[in-house]
Amino acid sequence: MDLSELLNSPMGQSIVKSVAGQLGMNEKEASGVVDMAVPALLAGMTRNAQSSDGAESLNKALETKHDGSLLNNLSGILQGNTKELQQDGNGILGHVFGNNLSSVEQGISQKTGVSMNKVAPLLAMLAPVVMAYLGKQKRQTNTGAGGLGDLLGGLLGGGQQKSRSGGGIMDMLGSALDKDGDGNPLNDILGGFLGGR
Asked: Which of 41, 43, 31 is nearest to 7 (CA)?
C-alpha cells in the first residue's frame, strides 16, 4: 500500500474526521492539510534515512516505540486525550524537520489556506500515525535500517525502488535534493510537494 491508498482508506478518512472535529476545522480543510503533511513527513524521513546515523536512529524508533501498535486503537486514541499523541508528534517533528519545522508549517498553511495554529497541532497528531504506519510496514517487510530509504520511497509512490543497482526513488530524491545549492535540501524536497517555494 502506498501513501495515496492509505490516505483514501477508511483509516485515512477516520483520521481526517477525528482531527477536523478536535481542531475545529471542516473535513475538507483537514483533508487538504493531511494530504500535504503526510508526504512532507515521509520526504523528511527519507532525507534523514539517507545518512547511516539517521537510518539507524529511525530504525531504532520504529523497532521500539513506533512499531505499528498505535494503529490498532487509532480511532480510540484520536477521540481521547490527544495531548500525549501531540507531545510525541512534536518530538518526531523535531527529529524529522529540525529548524525547518516552522517553514514546513508555513508552506502547508499557505498552500491550504488553513491557519498555522491549526496546521501545527494537526502535523503533531499525524507524525506518530505516520511513524506507526511505517513501523508496521517495516515489520511486515522485515526491513532493516539499510532498507528504510527504499521502504519510504515505496510509500511515497517511488514504486520502482532499485537502489542496489542504482536508479529508482533514491536517484529521484537525490536529484531533487538541494536544487538551489543553498545547503538545505529540505526546502527543495518540500518545494516539490508544496508546489514551488
From this structure: 31
Taking the C-alpha atoms of residue 66 and residue 95, their distance in angstroms, rounded to an integer, is 14
Do residues 183 and 99 lie in contact, with contact meaning Cβ atoms separated by under 8 Å?
Answer: no
| Region 119-137 average pLDDT | 92
Residues in the chain: 197
Residue 58 has a pLDDT of 92
The pTM of this model reads 0.78
Q: From residue 133, give the alpha-carbon distance in Å to each of 3, 109, 111, 183, 191.
A: 10, 24, 25, 30, 24
The 10s digit of each residue's pLDDT in 59-111 is: 999 998 898 888 888 878 877 778 888 999 999 999 999 989 999 999 999 99
pLDDT of residue 23: 87
Bigger pLDDT: 68 vs 179 = 68
Q: All 3 cell numbers of residue 83?
A: 495531548
- Listing DSSP states for the chain in one string gives --HHHHHHSHHHHHHHHHHHHHHT--HHHHHHHHHHHHHHHHHHHHHHTTSHHHHHHHHHHHHTT-SSGGGGGHHHHHHS--HHHHHHHHHHHHHHHGGGHHHHHHHHHHHHT--HHHHHHHHHHHHHHHHHHHHHHHHHHT--GGGHHHHHHHHTT-----TTTS-HHHHHHHHHTTTT-SS-HHHHHHHHHHT--
